[in-house]
Amino acid sequence: MMATDLLCGAIDLGGTKIEARLFDGAIETVKTRRIPTPTADFDSFIAALGDQIVWLCEMAADPALPVGLALAGWIDPATGNAFASNIPVTGRAIGAALADRFGRRFPLLNDCMAFAYSEAHGGAGAEAEVVLGVILGTGMGAGLTVRGEFPPRLNGVAVEIGHVGMPARALAEFDLPVWPCGCGKAGCMERYVSGTGLAALACHRLGREVTAPDLIAAAAGGDRPAARVLEIWADLTAEALLSLQLILDPGCIVLGGGLSNMPDVVARLTRAFDARRLGPITPPPLRLARFGDSSGARGAALYARAQSRIKPDAEAPAIKGNEP
Fold first, then answer.
1. Pick from 48, 56, 18: which is nearest to 34 by CA?
2. Direct distance between the N- and C-terminal alpha carbons of the chain, in angstroms, rounded to an integer
3. Sorted alphabetically, which InterPro entries does this protein's record hold (predicted)?
């Protein structure tokens, strides 16, 4: 095994699993361990999370192993309190609870920001100064790095494009209703272009329930109505990408999540994006994530290792505007 001072670890906090990954000095996965996510209460969740950290440290034979944590949620940089929809942490400080047990702090990152960080460091966005990582999975979100670092932000939020409203022009073009979103708003982009959004589009257009994978398979088999649903999805996703470009103007956009595995997805979205460009503005290149499903965990581990070289006990004290 590589020298212990080069090892680092990460934990992916999800609604169904807490996955721990140990990485070697080349940031290659050497060991993984999954356990079910306790969802009944905060204390049982923290106990399980702590056990995963212990396991990583034991596997590395290093009690001070840098370990980064990635979750689909938001951490208030002022209080350290979390907000997440599928794990029992809302209103509670994960970092403080772990510090009480371990006597040190752990970097806690939004999963989309961790994904962007990974792809900016040796990934599909390595040559771009500004990297936007867009995850198209069960939900939709994005992360951003500038010259390989997280830019300062007032509330520490990720690029929450999934909860930006889909433009009225796009909904009108395809005669789509304004669907309510679980966030409490309506017409959110996530409701149309995520995996669940694609399934909703299919149900609306075809008059029957169909999963995103089944729809993609049907379109590949020559089903014209299914193919038309995918064309509409690509146009709506291009609207989302255009919004991101007009606000952030990234050097490249890296795609991840389950829908990024769709055959020819880059070519499909590039065509739709180019057709919706604003005037002569050049759309940024679209690329598939180099590190696939493990990219978010890889980013969290890389960030933890970088922070450990700055000072031994780095989580990221809650410095307003600088939390990832």
1. 18
2. 30
3. ATPase_NBD, ROK
Domain at 8-112+295-308: CATH code: 3.30.420.40
CA 285, CA 291: separation in Å to the nearest integer? 18
d(CA 214, CA 279): 37
- In this structure, the number of other CB atoms found within 10 A of the CB of residue 91 comes to 11
Nearest-10 Cα torsion for 296, 299, 301, 306 = -160
CATH architecture group of domain 126-289: 2-Layer Sandwich (3.30)
Condensed to tens digits (0 to 9), the pLDDT of residues 142-192 reads 999 999 999 998 888 899 999 999 999 999 999 999 999 988 899 999 999
Nearest to 39 by CA among 99, 2, 90: 90
Per-domain residue ranges of the chain:
8-112+295-308, 126-289
Scan for tokens 């509670």, then name that residue. Answer: 92
Q: Rounded to an integer, what is the distance from CA 159 to the centroid of its chain?
A: 10
Interval 281-313: pLDDT, tens? 999 999 999 999 899 999 999 999 999 887 544
pTM of this prediction exceeds 0.85: yes
Q: What order of strands is seen across the sheet that includes strand 130-136?
A: 140-146, 130-136, 252-256, 286-288
Stated as kind and residue range, the H or E segment containing 19 is: strand 17-23
Domains 8-112+295-308 and 126-289 share a fold: yes
